[in-house]
Automatic annotation (TrEMBL):
It comes from Caldalkalibacillus thermarum (strain TA2.A1). This is Alanine racemase. InterPro entries: Ala_racemase_N, D-amino_acid_metab_enzyme, PLP-binding_barrel. The keyword Isomerase applies. Its EC number is 5.1.1.1. The keyword Isomerase applies. PANTHER family: D-SERINE DEHYDRATASE, ZGC:162816-RELATED. GO terms for biological process: D-serine catabolic process. SUPFAM superfamilies: PLP-binding barrel.
């Protein structure tokens, strides 16, 4: 990927010598998009944890963190490994100018092979995993206990994408959290969701409905968990570029995880979440 300031007006001749395929990014627009989402998060007192999968570019991650992002969301162990590997520290201090990476792996992992990879990353970054099934959580806990470590975990909620996550039933979610708290080598952080079905919205009104529903479902579930465990901190994380500017304004939501906003492609324009 190359990031350039785009000359105005466009002159197609300047691109003819370039080999293809090639991704080129208008730098000023990229900077504006990053700054605008960061400003939105600050205005609404939200943590911003952008998705890495849109750009998979170290330079853009650094730009996002410099603009105040609290951490990074990755979609797989492989993405986490690649990002940590590229996160070079100062040999004299053993630290990075932007600090230790704070990563959320927003996809459930299973099996000792994946748990071992996560444990290795856990020592190199502040890592949070996602769980949505009690047997998988118990398996992760057993691995952590055997190895004398603790994993931070968030519970995934299905708010309509129907890919993974618990159904948004208050009793079911509270019961799941209650059982999770018994697993002493897992640290419960909060609830998260991804309203990715907003990308299939047929118009702006449908997108807005999905976004509002995402925020309200999650906020209500957060209240249900806090009613059962009043002293328990519960982060409420929502995420998808088409929804966060609405779901992120719902009282009780604490974190947003957009990804595509750095580019705002034609899909965002079609959905009315960008111009």
């Amino acid at each position: 990927m190359q990031i350039h300031n785009r000359p105005k007006p466009w002159d197609i001749k300047q691109f003819l010598p370039l080999s293809t395929p090639r991704v080129m990014v208008h730098y000023a627009t990229l900077c504006r998009n990053i700054a605008e989402m960061s400003d939105f998060a600050r205005r609404h007192n939200l943590a911003l944890r952008p998705h890495f999968k849109t750009h998979k570019t170290l330079e853009i991650v650094q730009m996002q963190l410099k603009h105040g992002a609290a951490g990074v969301t990755v979609a797989s162990l492989s993405e986490a490994e690649a990002l940590i590997s590229a996160w070079e520290t100062d040999p004299s201090t053993g630290t990075h100018p932007l600090g230790k990476l704070d990563l959320l792996i927003a996809f459930p992992i299973v099996g000792d092979d994946q748990f071992t990879r996560a444990a290795r990353l856990n020592g190199q970054a502040r890592l949070t995993l996602m769980v949505d099934h009690m047997e998988a959580a118990r398996s992760l806990h057993a691995f952590a206990r055997r190895n004398g470590i603790t994993f931070r975990v968030m519970v995934k909620i299905n708010t309509g994408l129907n890919r993974c996550g618990l159904d948004p039933d208050h009793k079911e979610v509270v019961s799941f959290v209650e059982r999770l708290l018994e697993l002493t080598h897992l640290q419960f952080i909060g609830l998260l969701t991804h309203a990715g079905h907003a990308y299939g919205a047929e118009n702006e009104a449908e997108r807005e409905r999905i976004a509002r529903q995402e925020g309200e479902i999650m906020a209500q579930l957060g209240e249900a968990v806090k009613a059962r465990f009043p002293s328990l901190p519960v982060e409420i994380s929502v995420g998808a570029t088409p929804t966060v500017r609405i779901s992120g304004t719902v009282s009780g939501v604490t974190e947003i995880r957009p990804g595509n906003y750095v580019f705002n492609d034609r899909t965002q324009v079609r959905l009315g979440s960008a111009t």
